């Protein structure tokens, strides 16, 4: 397991995104209902946030609830929304203690009013914090995001010749964030599941079989250390990158 002392502080990813997979399987392995896995995942979320803060990661985006997740059994969806309320209540102090700013991306209009109000309260309370920005992707999917961006571009009356990559980027929900440098996905699956598709054009991927409730600080450091062993070329040759150092 990696330690924080092994990390090169000059090469820390500016933005880390995480697909937190494996809660349900973790619970079923222990003969519990799936919701128990989601409840047990809070220690992993806290560890990821604390590790990001300790390393100086500026942005941490967690895939918390996708638009596809609305299709899960209603009891599980209701339980997740209630868990969201409890988690925000219990973790606001941790966010304040770590100088973390909370934000959300996604269609939060679909979130139940009680959950949405609790979220808005925490977002307001942490708005002046200046360490890591924690973005919860809630009722989010990348295809939804891109479709909504295109709709707004049409509403604003932009002409085809006025639209380029930068134009579309400004209409995305992540317009104020840099693209992720590193994606971590737990749970052993090797896919991105409709998450930040536009933004991850040059993101480095790190997959682990570890189920999310077991994720701790050292696993975050493992991913960052692995990231630091890679050469990011962005379409250039290896020789060009070496000459730029």
Overview of this protein structure:
The protein has 245 residues and is α/β, with parallel strands linked by helices. Helices cover 43% and strands 14% of the residues. It has a single domain (10-141, 179-230), classed as Decaprenyl diphosphate synthase-like (Undecaprenyl pyrophosphate synthetase, 3-Layer(aba) Sandwich), CATH 3.40.1180.10. It is built from 9 helices and 6 strands. It has a 6-stranded parallel sheet, sandwiched between helices. It is globular.
Helical stretch count? 9
What would CATH call the homologous superfamily? Decaprenyl diphosphate synthase-like
| Beta fraction | 5-15%
Q: How much helical structure, as a percent, in the residues?
A: 40-55%
Query: What's the CATH first level?
Result: Alpha Beta
User: Kindly state the mean pLDDT as a whole number?
Assistant: 94
Largest sheet: 6 strands, parallel
CATH-defined architecture: 3-Layer(aba) Sandwich
CATH third-tier fold name: Undecaprenyl pyrophosphate synthetase
Number of domains: 1
Classify the secondary structure makeup into a structural class: alpha/beta
What Rg is obtained from the alpha carbons, in whole angstroms? 18 Å
What is the string of helix and strand elements? EHHHEHEHEHHEEHH
Strand order of the largest sheet: 3-4-2-1-5-6
* Strand element count: 6
The rounded distance between the terminal residues' Cα atoms is 29 Å
- Uncertain runs are none
Shape, please? Answer: globular
């Amino acid at each position: 397991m990696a330690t924080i002392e092994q990390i090169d502080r000059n090469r820390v990813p500016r933005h880390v995104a995480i697909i937190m997979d494996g809660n349900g399987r973790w619970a079923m392995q222990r003969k519990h209902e799936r919701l128990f896995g989601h409840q047990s995942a809070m220690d992993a979320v806290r560890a990821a946030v604390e590790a990001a803060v300790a390393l100086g990661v500026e942005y941490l985006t967690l895939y918390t609830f996708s638009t596809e997740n609305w299709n899960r059994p209603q009891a599980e969806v209701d339980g997740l929304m209630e868990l969201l309320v409890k988690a925000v209540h219990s973790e606001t102090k941790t966010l304040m203690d770590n100088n973390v700013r909370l934000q959300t991306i996604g269609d939060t209009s679909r979130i139940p009013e009680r959950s949405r109000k609790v979220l808005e309260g925490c977002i307001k309370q942490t708005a002046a914090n200046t360490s890591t920005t924690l973005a919860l992707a809630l009722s989010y999917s990348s295809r939804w995001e891109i479709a909504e961006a295109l709709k707004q571009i049409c509403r604003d009356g932009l002409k085809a010749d006025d639209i380029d990559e930068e134009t579309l980027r400004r209409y995305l929900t992540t317009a104020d964030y840099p693209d992720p440098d590193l994606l971590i996905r737990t749970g052993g699956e090797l896919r991105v599941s409709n998450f930040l598709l536009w933004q991850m054009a040059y993101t480095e991927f790190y997959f682990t079989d570890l189920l999310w409730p077991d994720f701790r600080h050292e696993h975050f450091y493992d991913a960052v250390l692995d990231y630091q062993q890679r050469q990011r070329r962005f379409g250039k040759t290896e020789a060009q990158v070496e000459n730029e150092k």
